[in-house]
Structure formats: structure tokens, C-alpha cells
Amino acid sequence: MATLPTCLVDVVGLSQTLCECWENGQPNDYNTSLSGLYLADLLPLKWTNSAKDCEKGGVWSILQTARNSAITMFLAELAAAISRFRDSNFMPFIGWVGSVKFADSLSVLNSGNYAGLRLKPKRIQGGRIVLRGVELNLQSVAPGTVVNVLVYSNRDLTALLGSVAVTLTTAGKFYGADFATPIQILLDGKDANGFTYSDFCTELYIVYQMPNGARYVNNQIYEAGTACCGQKPTAAKASSALQYVSDIDGIESPTIAAIETPTNTGQNAYGLRLKADYECDETAWLCGLPYAVATVGTGKHKVVARIVAQALYMKAGELTANAILDSTNINSITILMKEELYGKRSKYTKAYADALIWIAQNLPPDLSDCLACKKTQFVATLPR
Q: CA 265, CA 166: separation in Å to the nearest integer?
């Protein structure tokens, strides 16, 4: 996860109430906590009650920075802990579908028809496909012809998921363009609003409308032939991309409305190439846990949610203690509490480490399809 996931920000709150000299600068969500845990409860925050501390207004900044840093560190350290006990079920594939090679013979497509690629994603908890760009090669087109490549899903053929304009400077050559915003397709059977589809038979269509008089080149979806060591490129590419999709084929349809029942299908890519990432996010399940105290249930997912919240709580407490101890803006009360802070920090550090190991070892298998039990297991011995 490259950015801070918003689903974790409010798991632990900053403070339940405003204290003396805390009236200014507080964030709007300072007292929001899904888990009922508040960072200010962990530490003796009397240190903020001096005019010197208030003038600098550092308390809210310290708490927010500690919480955000705790989330970032937790994500990285959880991934490392999980890798000790779990294997990846899916290998990522980053690259192109659609061969750059094409036969000399060209095919004619009815003007106005739509042609391109159809992807049939598998249902994978934590899986996603990110469409990044395309390349297109057409013959018999005027120099500078612009062709729009469109992306649809059979969930709603009236809603365009994205588009990109490809300028064909010279006929018979591939020209590419990237989507202004990469198109992310989640493979967990949910739409953008979090609604879960029970059947998940989604199809994706990446197509263009054939310009008048144009001809497409006959490139294949996968390259034929034999690569080094006797391995076919077709098999090598398909084995990675086809972990995430049950099929990729070329299609032709007279209209978008009729694209679910195309007039032609096959391994011809219709002159189109698709650049995409196929990957499995091994921590995507974090955003689906029932963190809210009011959430009904005592099952395994609820237990994991409580331990995740506790881990974030402990890490944020450790980082807040660090900030206080490292601060040059310390009053006499803080100095008297230094030993107490050192003790609390050590406690939080150990509790956090224990929580990480517990989560990595006790993940329910239905939380993610990205992970599998290691073939060779070992048991970590926790410090006494």
C-alpha cells in the first residue's frame, strides 16, 4: 500500500476530550475511534499543561504524527511477519497482453464495429487488476488519426470505466497512450461502493471503434514460438496473467450494448495491446475487518480486528513516548516522569511485537486468497 489507508486512520482516536491548553489546533476527528481506544490515555500528558508547550501547539501534531507513522510501520512490519508464516498464493504480473508481432496479412473489420480484448477476472480476495495503458496498430488510416480506446464492464455497459486517445502517426506501427488515471479492478466481487456481488462473473472490455476504411493488424494475444530453454513465451506469459483471469480473448461487436455476445472471438488481439498490473495485496483484508465497538459478532474476524487495533494503539503509544522523550520542549513535570515514560515505552514495544506475531500466525483463511500456509512451518519462540 503506497498511501496511508483511510480505513485505518480512525481505528485509534487521539483523545476523548479536550484538555487544558488543547482547545486550539485539534483535528476535526480527534475524538473519533472505531475501537474505543484513544492515544492520549496511554501517556501522562500533563507535560502539555505549560504555556511553553501550548505556544508551540505541538501536542496534536505529535499525536497525529505518531498515529500516522504507526500505521505506516505496522503495514510494513505486518507484511514481514506474515512472510515468516505464509507463502504468496499468486505471483504478480506486470506487463503487456497482446503481441507486438503481427502477420503480413491484414484483416478487414466493418467500419463502426467495436474490437479489442475481453478479460474474465477470477474472484480473488485481495486480488486486483490495474489497467495502465494501451498500444494500437491500424493500417489504411490517415496520418494523425485519433482513436479512442474505451473500457467497460458487463456490470453496467452504460458506464464508461475509462478511456484513452491514441494518435496513430503512421499506419502499420504501434502507438501507445496511458490512462490519465489507472483503472483499478478489485477482484473480491465488490463494486466501488463496497457492495458484494454473490456470483462475480465480471467481464472487462477494452475496445475501440474501427475508423472508416481502416484495417487492423493480425497480432495474437500471446506470442507464439519458442523461447530459450525450450519454454514457450505463450506459456510463460499466460501462467502469470492467467492466475488472475480465467480467459483473455479478442472480440468484435457491432455495438457496446451487444458486446456480451460478440460476433467474433479468438486469439486475435485486433491490433491492440494492453498494459496492466495483476497483483494480490496481502494486507487488503485489513480494510474489511469489523473495528467498530458496536459491530455485532465475536467471531475470528472480530478477534483479529481487536488485535490489529491493539497493535496500532501500542505502536502509536511507543512513538508518542519517543517524541516526548526526544523533545527539547519539556517542562519539569515531564522530567520527573521520564522513568515512567521509559517503562511505558518498553511495555508498548513488547506488546506491539507480540500482537504482530499473533496476527501473522492466526489469520483466518477466508480473509485473503493471497496467502497460503507455508509448506515448512516453524514456531517462533516469544521472549519471556
A: 23
Beta-carbon contacts of residue 198 (< 8 Å; ≥ 6 apart): 189
d(CA 88, CA 63): 35
pTM of this prediction? 0.78
Q: In angstroms, rounded to a whole number, what is the distance separating the alpha carbons of residues 147 and 166?
A: 5
Per-residue pLDDT 10s for the chain (384 aa) are 446 678 999 999 998 876 555 566 678 888 899 999 999 898 765 554 444 454 444 678 888 999 999 999 999 999 999 999 999 999 899 999 999 998 766 766 677 899 999 999 998 999 999 999 999 999 989 999 999 999 999 989 999 999 999 999 998 899 999 999 999 998 886 654 444 544 556 899 999 999 988 989 989 997 654 343 333 344 444 557 888 998 899 999 999 999 999 999 999 999 999 999 999 999 989 998 999 887 655 589 999 999 999 999 999 999 998 888 877 665 555 555 777 888 899 999 999 999 999 999 999 988 999 998 877 654 544 444
Q: Which domains does the chain possess?
A: 6-88+301-373 (no CATH), 99-268 (2.60.120)
Helices (runs of H) and strands (runs of E) counted in the chain: 7, 17
Distance CA 169, CA 172 (A): 10
Helix (H, G, I), strand (E, B) or coil at 335: helix
Cβ of 222: how many Cβ atoms within 10 Å? 20
Contact between 60 and 30 under an 8 Å Cβ cutoff? The reply is yes
Three-state DSSP class for residue 223: coil
Among 307, 344, 346, 312, residue whose Cα is nearest residue 67? 312
For residues 284 and 299, what is the distance between their CA atoms, to the nearest angstrom?
19
Cβ-based neighbours of 228, under 8 Å, separated by 6 or more: none
